[in-house]
Amino acid sequence: MSEPVLQIRHLSVDYPTRVGVVRGTDDVSLTVYRGEVLGLVGESGCGKSTLGMAILRLLRPPGKIVAGEIVFNGQDLLKLDNEAMRRLRGAHISMIFQDPMTCLNPLQRVSDHMVETIRTHHPEVKEQEAREQATELIDRLGIRAERLDDYPHQLSGGMRQRVMIGLALALNADLIIADEPTTSLDVIVEAQFLDQLKDLQRQFNLTIILITHNIGVVAELADRVAVMYAGKLVELADAFSLFDDPLHPYTRGLLNSVPNISLTEDHLQIMSGAPPDLINPPPGCKFHPRCPRAMERCRVEEPPVKEVQPGHWTACWLYGEQEGHK
Amino acid sequence: MTAIAEVKPGLLARFLRGRKWYGTEWYMTVTGGLIVVFIVVLTLLTFLTPRLAPYDPESRTGDPFAPPYAQHIFGTDQLGRDIFSRIIYGAQIVLQVALLSATFSFIVGVPLGLISGFLGGRLDRALSLIMDSIYAFPGLILAIALAALLGAGVLNMSIAIATIYVPTFFRLVRGQVLSIKEEMYVEAARSLGARGRTILWRYIFPNVIPSIVVVFSLNIADAIITEAGLAFVGLGVDPSKPDWGYDIYRGRSELVGGRWWPVTFPGLAIALVALGFSMFGEGLSEILNPRLTEA
Predict the structure, then answer these.
(1) Which residue of A42, A99, B227, B231 has the fewest C-beta atoms within 10 A of its own C-beta?
(2) If pLDDT is split at 50, 70 and 90, which confidence band does B11 have?
(3) ipTM score for this prediction
């Protein structure tokens, strides 16, 4: 495998609230390699977006990283000062957000956004050069150059999303975090967008963390998939083995609950129960109250993440006991 | 046909289509705007020429207390000065004070509100406390106290009035900043590495401007009334100069004797100008309100 771009080690994020502390992500460890698309899936509130924002150190207060390290190109991001972190954003790590309708400043033209992003990081670039770069960029994204002087409200949702990508790509970032990039697009635009993202990814060998609750999007784009539940990483594998042979009962449930046109009605299963209360999470494995295969041990002891098969990691007591490592 | 359809929805286009789209607000804005333009232009002209009024506003040109008649259409005051001329020239002080004070409050209140809302924390709490304490005072009383402290004069009156309106700007801007700060485009800008000052200046401030314009206009309306109030209690400028508020004060005692004109006409002038500015402001606020335009 190629070199790691980002290594997240034992990352925990807390949200102190009036009624107690919510642990947004709990002891998550992940490695992202150059040129891969890592899908990060899970239900709403499982901590996947928190993880994305934590990487950029843009958690909304009172959210706070309480433990762990985030190593990006050999540098621990949590040790950088704010100014160094700011310079990193956009230039080395950038983000695509879920709602293209509200991601662009309504009072700035597309060109202003682009020029500003380029010149923030390269103040030596002249306005005119930055504009030329922007023209080239949106041209590559399939937007006509004359739209450069439009305001965001004059663009369609798909175009705005492409402008967002353009901004994220403007400085050849090493890592792009796409937080639910297609959630607010309709299926046709979504399909076009995914095709384009795939093309761009191949063309520029982009490294993308694709955060989504949409298994279909992950299946289409991701090389590897990480599944999160209640702030925990429960399974991590390459996309093929994850879809072919999901190990964790939660992943199975998740895959079974995806509506599929070829399934008959009774194949669609709804997972019983609801996500746990994160202020008072259940003891042991957080999934045990909903798990069809819960054992006595699951109620008391939390399973560690183990490599059950080569490159296929999961946190479940059903596996790996015989290997004897913790 | 197509030419009209292709007009970009800029402010002008919205105004032009306003008749159909916005109804009442549009008429309010236009009526208010016309009054404002009329008064402002008239007043600017009075600075250029003393010949705008039929008589010299500061000297005796008729019998004292002459009721309105052909030569003096608004009558004369106790010194025989023409009330109509005094009203035309009296607008000078009122407008100067109103514009100056609204500008002062703008200059102080807007940056403080921007910084306070954007940075938050202790500075925000301290500033909010100060502004809320000023806001808690009855406006006119505070203005009277300050004007008495500072002494007479256009500038001092403006400062006194400005002080009571600073919190209006501050609270408005701070509130807007707090909500715009949470917008996705601000977060997106941060994720692309934008500096704090870029975000404040290019993302937040332009989005606050429409509300500031509205409050500015409403504040002028308010300041006109406050200025008249200050002049009424004798804290205005030189008493020989025409001033609506002071003229009302002097005409007030004559009402008992049935001489209604020294009070009524300056009063109407104040009401008209204040109404003009507030109609303009209110109408503008309705038109600039994005919830109405995007529906």
Answers:
(1) A99
(2) low
(3) 0.78
Is the per-residue pLDDT at B260 higher than 70? yes
- How far, in Å, CA of A44 to CA of A214, rounded? 11
Question: Taking CA atoms, what residue in B is nearest to A177?
Answer: B191
Interface of B with A in 187-216 (CB under 8 A): 187-195, 198, 202-203, 206-207
**Total-model pTM:** 0.77
Burial degree of A96 (CB within 10 A; 0-12, 13-18, 19+): buried
User: Chain A residue with minimal CA distance to B193?
Assistant: A89
What does the pLDDT average to over A189-207? 86
Q: Tell me which residue in B185, B194, B202 faces A103 most closely, judged by beta carbons.
A: B185
Q: Looking at the complex, report in whole angstroms how far the Cα of residue A251 sits from the nearest Cα belonging to chain B.
A: 31
Contact A105 B193 (CB under 8 A): no
In chain A, the domains with their CATH numbers are 4-92+173-323 (3.40.50.300), 100-172 (no CATH)
Rounded to whole angstroms, the Cα distance separating B219 from B107 reads 13
Q: Out of 2.40.128.110, 1.10.3720.10, 3.60.15.10, 2.40.440.10, which CATH number does the structure's domain B28-294 have? A: 1.10.3720.10
Q: What is the pLDDT of residues B124-147, one digit of tens each?
A: 999 999 999 999 988 889 999 999
Residues 6+ apart with CB under 8 A from B213: B284, B288
Contacts of B206 in chain A (CB under 8 A): 105, 107
- The CA-CA-CA angle for residues A100, A104, A109, to 5°, reads 130
